[in-house]
From TrEMBL:
One of its GO terms (biological process) is recognition of pollen. Residues 27-151 form the Bulb-type lectin domain. InterPro entries: Bulb-type_lectin_dom, Bulb-type_lectin_dom_sf, EGF, S_locus_glycoprot_dom. PROSITE patterns: BULB_LECTIN (PS50927), EGF_3 (PS50026). It comes from Quercus rubra (Northern red oak). Residues 333-352 are annotated as: Disordered. Keywords: Disulfide bond, EGF-like domain, Glycoprotein, Signal. This is Uncharacterized protein. Residues 291-329 form the EGF-like domain. Residues 1-25 form the signal peptide. Gene3D superfamilies: Bulb-type lectin domain. Transmembrane segments: none annotated.
Length: 352
């Protein structure tokens, strides 16, 4: 349990449950007159997701996030102020005069986080609703026009129904970025990006700006490098949209609401896991992982290097026979990206 609820919230919640009919007790919508304070919760209408303030791991900082409400361990799927923690319980998330979702801490003059959209809708009513797929949607009540949604700004988690990739009409590119550590949801070193530059899109995993792993191209069924982890089956579906409007990829559950939870997470050391859990389960199971193993990383052992997982902790890269590391110092630091070169002073040369 990484969540922390104030006594005030528990008391308030108990009172609400006692005083009001059950369907009024859980709110899924934020209005300009009803902000969310630290300790309050928004709960989606099927009670799959909750939004509120949380403290990750061993940290003492407070963040606004969305987490699985009824699943084991209540894992966090999205974080608003990931690089701007609040250090106390003064946080308030509200809709401001301009229709933006804004997060304030102690200092009421300087916002900690905001959706930063420009609206020219003076008198319209703008609401923020947490939907049952885990998307926080800011919209005009009159027209249902979506102004902003958390699915467009993923953190480390790719949820069913979410899109990764480029919206060509707005220029928005949705990517995953790892947490710094389990105690810090700040932007870490790994990113998972749909490369939309070529006519044949491909998923790239980067460590900083080094290409770490690639999925292979979309072959119409799945990603060619991980066919068993990306093709339609009886539980999940996968798709790629590639048009003048967007280049994006999506995955989802065939039977949403069937009490099955699932999420794809880029962890702090660059592993991507697909987790599943049923509503009655006590834990999450890992359904698939990429990169598949240490040799699966892109260009792992460089030119003229080969990769083979050794027993134990040995380095998995070796040079082909007759070759040696181009940079012995990098090699001894287990960085083989500059590969191997032909050995000098080998037998052949002596015979010249
Ligand atoms: C919004 O309200 C302000 C002040 O009442 C007014 O000056 C402005 O023209 C209005 N904008 C729109 C788009 O209605
Ligand atoms: C949103 O619009 C509906 C009708 O479309 C109305 O019943 C509801 O009261 C409005 N919500 C708010 C908060 O104004
Ligand atoms: C990210 O990479 C830099 C450079 O390699 C390293 O100093 C830093 O500790 C890394 N950060 C995390 C959160 O792993
Ligand atoms: C795609 O092209 C743009 C512009 O040339 C570049 O900034 C970006 O890094 C490229 N993306 C990838 C994934 O190669
Ligand atoms: C996979 O399932 C999705 C959703 O049902 C569908 O749109 C897509 O065409 C399917 N892909 C294949 C290769 O059948
Ligand atoms: C990421 O996943 C890998 C593979 O399961 C694991 O070895 C590693 O400890 C994980 N890293 C973090 C930061 O959780
Ligand atoms: C790893 O070690 C086990 C037992 O020590 C041995 O049977 C196996 O052949 C080794 N595998 C490799 C790839 O060296
Ligand atoms: C490995 O070495 C290459 C070439 O010198 C360098 O560009 C890269 O940053 C190094 N990679 C890591 C993970 O340190």
């Amino acid at each position: 349990m990484i969540m922390y609820f104030t006594k005030g919230f528990l008391l308030l919640h108990t009172l609400l449950v006692l005083l009001l009919p059950q369907f009024d007790a859980l709110q899924d919508t934020l209005t300009s007159s009803k902000p969310i304070r630290d300790g309050d919760l928004l709960v989606s209408n099927g009670e799959t997701f909750a939004l509120g303030f949380f403290t990750p791991g061993e940290s003492t900082n407070r963040y606004v996030g969305i987490w699985f409400y009824k699943a084991p361990e209540q894992p966090v799927a999205w974080v608003a102020n990931r690089d701007n923690p609040i250090t106390d319980t003064s946080g308030v998330l509200s809709i401001d005069l301009h229709g933006n979702l804004v997060l304030y801490g102690e200092d009421q003059k300087k916002s900690i986080w905001s959706t930063n959209i420009v609206t020219n809708s003076n008198d319209s009513i703008i609401l923020a609703q947490l939907t049952d797929v885990g998307n926080l949607v800011l919209f005009l009540n009159e027209t249902s026009e979506v102004l902003w949604q958390s699915f467009d700004y993923p953190t480390d988690t790719f949820l069913p129904g979410m899109k990764l990739g480029l919206d060509r009409t707005t220029g928005l590119n949705r990517i995953l970025t790892s947490w710094k550590s389990k105690d810090d949801p700040g932007i870490g070193n790994f990113s998972f990006i749909l490369n939309t530059n070529s006519s044949s899109p491909e998923l790239f995993l980067y460590k900083g700006n080094i290409l770490w792993w690639r999925s292979g191209h979309w072959n119409g069924i799945g990603w060619s490098g991980i066919p068993t982890l990306s093709s339609n089956d009886s539980v999940m579906y996968f798709n790629l949209f590639n048009s003048e409007y967007e280049t994006s990829t999506v995955w989802g559950l065939r039977y949403p609401g069937a009490s099955l939870f699932s999420r794809l997470v880029l962890n702090g050391s660059g592993s991507i896991h697909r987790f599943v859990s049923a509503i009655s389960d006590q834990e999450w199971d890992i359904l698939g992982t990429v990169p598949l193993d240490r040799c699966d990383n892109y260009g792992k052992c460089g030119a003229f290097g080969k990769c083979q997982i050794q027993n134990g902790t040995e380095f998995e890269c070796t040079c082909l026979t007759g070759f040696e590391p181009r940079s012995p110092s990098e090699w001894s630091a287990r960085n083989a990206t500059s590969g191997c070169v032909k050995k000098h002073g080998g037998g052949i040369r002596l015979q010249e």
